[in-house]
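[Q] Does anyone have a clean structure-token version of this?
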Amino acid sequence: MTDYWHPTAGRLAGKVPSLGEVPEPHSVIEFRDQFRFAVPPDVVWGAIERTDNFERWWGWLGDFHLDGPGLQPGSVLVGVVSPPLPYSMRVQVVLEDCVKPESIDAAVHGDLEGTAHLTLTPDHDGTLATATWTIEMMQRTMRLADRVAHPLLRWGHDRVVDATVASFRHDVESRR
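[A] Here you go.
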């Protein structure tokens, strides 16, 4: 950005973009939803612990590995997220707090930056999972795309969530 001089005001009037410079939009997705599973929280937690199944469950996840001893603070989930749009994102999910079988709090880094939270609550004979996150898209091309096509990017995000929950639900509930 370059300051410019306002000729009539005789002072710096503000900022204008330099040539070739694109103002950074605030490309954030805030998400909160609840999902019911027909199995108790310890069964849902047990399925989440099987991180070696993540890529098989979720076709949008690639190059996945876990750095650390499992669902414990300090462990890092590393992978590439490829939604049904022409881009992919490298992410690292750092587990900050894990209370078995109740909750996971994490920090997200890489092409997405933010926080994520998962809470598993007993619900009659099943589990109510509450997922929340706030993530900011960090890739310049994604930020530009968000500026002109936020509904399309949100649609891609929501399709990834739908596919994730459907695949996970099928796997965890078929083990009853």
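[Q] Thanks! Anything notable?
[A] The chain has one domain: 26-174.
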